[in-house]
Amino acid sequence: MQWVKVLGGVVGAAALLGLGIILGHFAIPKGANVPAPSVSQDLDLEILETVMQQLEASRIRENLRELSREPHLASSPRDEALVQLLLQRWQDPESGLDAAEAPAYEVLLSFPSQEQPNHVAVVSPTGSVVFSCRQSEQNLTGEQVGPDVVPPYAAYAPPGTPQGLLVYANRGTEEDFMNLQTQGIKLEGTIALTRYGGAGRGAKAVNAAKYGVAGVLVYTDPADINDGQSSANETFPNSWCLPPSGVERGSYYEYFGDPLTPYLPANPSSFRLDPDAAPGFPPIPAQPIGFDDAKSLLCQVNVSVHNRRELRNSSNVLGIIRGAVEPDRYVLYGNHRDSWVHGAVDPSSGTAVLLELSRVLGTLLKKGTWRPRRSIVFASWGAEEFGLIGSTEFTEEFFSKLQERTVAYINVDISVFANATLRAQGTPPVQSVIFAAAKQIPAPSPVGLSIYDNWIRYSNRSSPAYGVVPSLGSLGAGSDYAPFIHFLGISSMDIAYTYDRSKTSARIYPTYHTAFDTFGYVDKFVDPGFSSHQAVARTAGSVLLRLSDSLFLPLNVSDYGETLRSFLQAAQQHLGGLLEQHSISLGRLVTAVEKFEAAAKALEQHRSALQKGSPDPLQVRMLNDQLMLLERTFLNPRAFPEERYYSHVLWAPRTSSVATFPGLANACSRAMNTSLGSEAWAEVRRQLSILVVALEGAAATLRPVADL
Amino acid sequence: MQWVKVLGGVVGAAALLGLGIILGHFAIPKGANVPAPSVSQDLDLEILETVMQQLEASRIRENLRELSREPHLASSPRDEALVQLLLQRWQDPESGLDAAEAPAYEVLLSFPSQEQPNHVAVVSPTGSVVFSCRQSEQNLTGEQVGPDVVPPYAAYAPPGTPQGLLVYANRGTEEDFMNLQTQGIKLEGTIALTRYGGAGRGAKAVNAAKYGVAGVLVYTDPADINDGQSSANETFPNSWCLPPSGVERGSYYEYFGDPLTPYLPANPSSFRLDPDAAPGFPPIPAQPIGFDDAKSLLCQVNVSVHNRRELRNSSNVLGIIRGAVEPDRYVLYGNHRDSWVHGAVDPSSGTAVLLELSRVLGTLLKKGTWRPRRSIVFASWGAEEFGLIGSTEFTEEFFSKLQERTVAYINVDISVFANATLRAQGTPPVQSVIFAAAKQIPAPSPVGLSIYDNWIRYSNRSSPAYGVVPSLGSLGAGSDYAPFIHFLGISSMDIAYTYDRSKTSARIYPTYHTAFDTFGYVDKFVDPGFSSHQAVARTAGSVLLRLSDSLFLPLNVSDYGETLRSFLQAAQQHLGGLLEQHSISLGRLVTAVEKFEAAAKALEQHRSALQKGSPDPLQVRMLNDQLMLLERTFLNPRAFPEERYYSHVLWAPRTSSVATFPGLANACSRAMNTSLGSEAWAEVRRQLSILVVALEGAAATLRPVADL
């Protein structure tokens, strides 16, 4: 009888709000307005300002210190302790949420063996060990030793002890191995030394195995991560640079989600694939090493990998603030909790912000000052580092409910890579709400500029509709937004503070996934004073409130038109000639984009008209449903049968370098060197039809709802 | 700028309604209430009664006479003329709808050659023709000749002129051919004579080809269709029985939808499969014949099939009555338009009802007396006989829009098979609204009984919740509801009047798909006086109005619990032992069903509580969304990858005879005789997980919307 509980909750909420109104009127000084729980409840700018003011940098710092005090690898005791910390915060009587829980999934993770440490050594022709790589990072701050610091390893790489001649294979891309072969270098049975970047982790092993390589080493090149700095005195703890012994850990699994339960939640009794037959694992042993060791390698190398796969329980923590007016509309805000070691930057900088934001909102809630129009769901995902596992299982378990009701997903994983500028990625409908938030929040520096004004100085583009605006990045699959956008078709975004690219070309912040990613590192080098953390908390918090509280959803669908137009232009420019040679016209695609643009523009005008009038609550809801569900219309689960989870016809992975519709671009790349009537050219035409139907279908949902 | 037009429409509608209110108050006698366009607009019982009274049997009869005056094979000139007739009716200024249009698809149909008629003959060992089958039906009423009467043929059967020994293969099931082989009968190169029934049309040819059969003949057995009557004086025009020369035409295509554009609308520029490589066509020539000819066949038979496949334009006609309050919620009502010959029963009996219903509603609309709360969409589908093509293409083209917004789909194809009793098929949520309608409408006979009371006498079951109730059938894929329920997951139903099964065991009405299915046949034998047609019009009309006008959607989700429980019991009883032997427990399935039942019951209580109070419009909308979208939660496009379109985990085709969850039942059938660790047993476990996740996911959508 769970609804009784919640009905009680709603009634209770109404009573609280009623009480709040009375209190607001009689007991609280002017300025603390308590919105009535009416169907026209809208964003309250005073509440928004209150939230912005109450987000404290010092509290974020304290959160981070606590979160990153110990290593908290997925499913470890400390990871479970943080589950309890989150639950405690979200169930706090004074600053907690309406409800919180921590359901667990049973998922396949991968760990190095404690008894038989992974090992990389140079051996002489007689087999004696000439040189051994370190098995752990150097203890520079007292935090790099201890039983909870997991030694560097390549998660999901199979065990094995290959030995062979060392071959330097650059970034381990397909092209890199092909070049080596072309140069007459024998690859069969070798150990490939590769550096991070250019290709995914797992892809390096997959590519290598195709050429008969027996094992793969992956190191972090100082040129890629440290702007060339490599000596001890140039690196942490003397700078933010990666020390010579630092090793990037990471998952080498090719897909995401629990490897044994694709498309099914990893509940204990769920059907599981045979682990020895499940796809996506690296085919050969792999091991990451530091650049100091990488320098020392030569000739014959022996790699011993003793990783084991284990079924483990991994929890998500979920908390909800129930909506006062439309509780069936969810704004999701999440980040993962698990780290490779202490994970101060990745992911605790995001979780520290999450906790501060939930504290401020929870406090307003518990005081009865505020309740959002729509429901807000906070999530702390488990086992992200192993492949976005917690979030993916959650989307599998609640597919229908989430797809029907979720307004948007906000991801703040690493909240601060560096303290120069905001960086946001997302699908076009969220651009406007991020801009609106960023315009009203002061940048940490320089003084006097808004976050928006500062952002536009670092990264901008020319928009046909708006002129020069900050450049919104697109979403790949680098964090927990991936299942939400690619599998569920929910408008998503990822928000962080990041680098001044004129000052560093580091591939990512230098201590990423190493034992040097600690509180001290953040406090000293990444964001002293935590003002960038606060800026991200405010930006993400403002976006969250605007989405949860605005009467009209602040999602701009006509901004999708700009993306479609630019994809179309790229297709015409780079693929048009090739397609024409095969008698394939882009004419219907042009028409479809035009129809989308016209329908989106008309819908925005309809919104303006409604906003000026006094629409009834159902008119607003109908419009909001169109806005919320637009992203869903781009999903086609049959478009890319070989790409697990990827169903979004606009954002599926693109292997082609042409920045256009991925299905079309990929199909063209594959067809390019095939004959006229090939299967590959049929696939190009199929992909074009899938795309046209998706865009026409999307336009149909934007048109007046009672149009035939 | 299409929205301007519609905004105008809505404003206009409001003005009209306003005017209507004034008129209703001052100018119209009491009783003609005009509902105000308020957010709480609810079903008006007086309007419902008015509609019931205005549905005239004589007008349905006139509609049928006109619709079945000439043969109207899909895409023929007469079919196009009927498109114009429908458009004219739906655009009529006094009884039309708000808007109507007739978009066409370009689809692959199949026709016999005029120059080379299909031909079946008995030949002597020397090759001379000993006997020839008729190439057309006997002209008994003057309507069986003429250029528009398509000769009997098996649509989509490939051309070919096989010749071989005749083998009688019963119904052409897999088992039938296996039995023949077991008996030592050589099948290679033979012509199989089969009778209709037992297996699908195309399946007979597929099964035959597996055994090397060269050609298939299919006849209608008098035992199956005529209760044994077979002489000329026992059959039409002397009774409703099929004359000896009657031949059932039909599509022999194995899937549905346009064969060349699966999952894509068949627009002219859509990607098309190579017709010679597209799956689903019969692998060998096939030809239907009458029972008179079937008797005469013996020994060596020559079959000449000269069917040709052609791309043709086929139109749907769509008409809309825009909703006054929730125009973005659609109640769809449809039937196909195309027939094999005159098609008086199939499908014109349904179209005649459709036109009468649209006339009555259109008249109320144009008078300003009434506008539904939600939008009503009427559809006349093209090319159903070739495989539900028009409706399927429509669902492919507007997938997202329909899936997001459609409340239910009502299909009335053949409206009257016979005049004994109502027969309804549908998914559980529509049972209650059909019952409610049927209880309030008098049966044509016997006098004094409601349609419901009469129905329960012919077909009933014992419901745990309600006691003895009429038996609602389940939906296969026999008409245009198939893409709506199986592909889109929209709650659907099919409504008709049908046989007294104690009086006939006919497989279907005898002249089905023959040249004897004419107006005179209906007028004289099927429904003299058209009172059964009127009863169907009233029932379907009442269901339509209840769905379009009720403030709370009359969909009962807890009735799904009864189906799940009965499926579960069948699984436990018939599969439980087998599963236990393979260590597969149904425990989680039991729990999932229990969770569903509890959530559904609580939701119905929540509905009652809301109905007693004065809910705000958003509370009603939120509840209605849960009711409307429940059916969607049972879809899993990845559940049955080999079954085109079928995504509904509860209603996918079931080959097993156990009346339970189809995926589980089918997987068990396949696994039964395989070894313990086989792929087939893994598939059983996978199907069980898919099912549990679907039921748990469905229950999650029924629980209070702000539950975690």
Automatic annotation (TrEMBL), chains A, B:
<keyword id="KW-0325">Glycoprotein</keyword>
<keyword id="KW-0482">Metalloprotease</keyword>
<keyword id="KW-0812">Transmembrane</keyword>
<keyword id="KW-0645">Protease</keyword>
<dbReference type="GO" id="GO:0016324">
    <property type="term" value="C:apical plasma membrane"/>
</dbReference>
<dbReference type="Pfam" id="PF04389">
    <property type="entry name" value="Peptidase_M28"/>
</dbReference>
<feature type="transmembrane region" description="Helical">
    <location>
        <begin position="7"/>
        <end position="28"/>
    </location>
</feature>
<dbReference type="GO" id="GO:0004177">
    <property type="term" value="F:aminopeptidase activity"/>
</dbReference>
<feature type="domain" description="Transferrin receptor-like dimerisation">
    <location>
        <begin position="584"/>
        <end position="703"/>
    </location>
</feature>
<dbReference type="InterPro" id="IPR039373">
    <property type="entry name" value="Peptidase_M28B"/>
</dbReference>
<comment type="subunit">
    <text>Homodimer.</text>
</comment>
<keyword id="KW-1003">Cell membrane</keyword>
<dbReference type="InterPro" id="IPR007365">
    <property type="entry name" value="TFR-like_dimer_dom"/>
</dbReference>
<keyword id="KW-0106">Calcium</keyword>
<keyword id="KW-0735">Signal-anchor</keyword>
<keyword id="KW-1015">Disulfide bond</keyword>
<keyword id="KW-0378">Hydrolase</keyword>
<keyword id="KW-1133">Transmembrane helix</keyword>
<keyword id="KW-0862">Zinc</keyword>
<comment type="function">
    <text>Aminopeptidase with broad substrate specificity. Has lower activity with substrates that have Asp or Glu in the P2' position, or Pro in the P3' position. Lacks activity with substrates that have both Pro in the P3' position and Asp or Glu in the P2' position. Lacks carboxypeptidase activity. Lacks dipeptidyl-peptidase IV type activity.</text>
</comment>
<dbReference type="InterPro" id="IPR003137">
    <property type="entry name" value="PA_domain"/>
</dbReference>
<dbReference type="Pfam" id="PF02225">
    <property type="entry name" value="PA"/>
</dbReference>
<dbReference type="GO" id="GO:0006508">
    <property type="term" value="P:proteolysis"/>
</dbReference>
<keyword id="KW-0472">Membrane</keyword>
<keyword id="KW-0031">Aminopeptidase</keyword>
<dbReference type="InterPro" id="IPR007484">
    <property type="entry name" value="Peptidase_M28"/>
</dbReference>
<dbReference type="Pfam" id="PF04253">
    <property type="entry name" value="TFR_dimer"/>
</dbReference>
<dbReference type="InterPro" id="IPR046450">
    <property type="entry name" value="PA_dom_sf"/>
</dbReference>
<dbReference type="GO" id="GO:0008237">
    <property type="term" value="F:metallopeptidase activity"/>
</dbReference>
<feature type="domain" description="Peptidase M28">
    <location>
        <begin position="316"/>
        <end position="524"/>
    </location>
</feature>
<feature type="domain" description="PA">
    <location>
        <begin position="165"/>
        <end position="250"/>
    </location>
</feature>
<protein>
    <recommendedName>
        <fullName>Aminopeptidase NAALADL1</fullName>
    </recommendedName>
</protein>
<comment type="similarity">
    <text>Belongs to the peptidase M28 family. M28B subfamily.</text>
</comment>
<dbReference type="GO" id="GO:0046872">
    <property type="term" value="F:metal ion binding"/>
</dbReference>
<keyword id="KW-0479">Metal-binding</keyword>
<dbReference type="InterPro" id="IPR036757">
    <property type="entry name" value="TFR-like_dimer_dom_sf"/>
</dbReference>
<dbReference type="GO" id="GO:0004180">
    <property type="term" value="F:carboxypeptidase activity"/>
</dbReference>
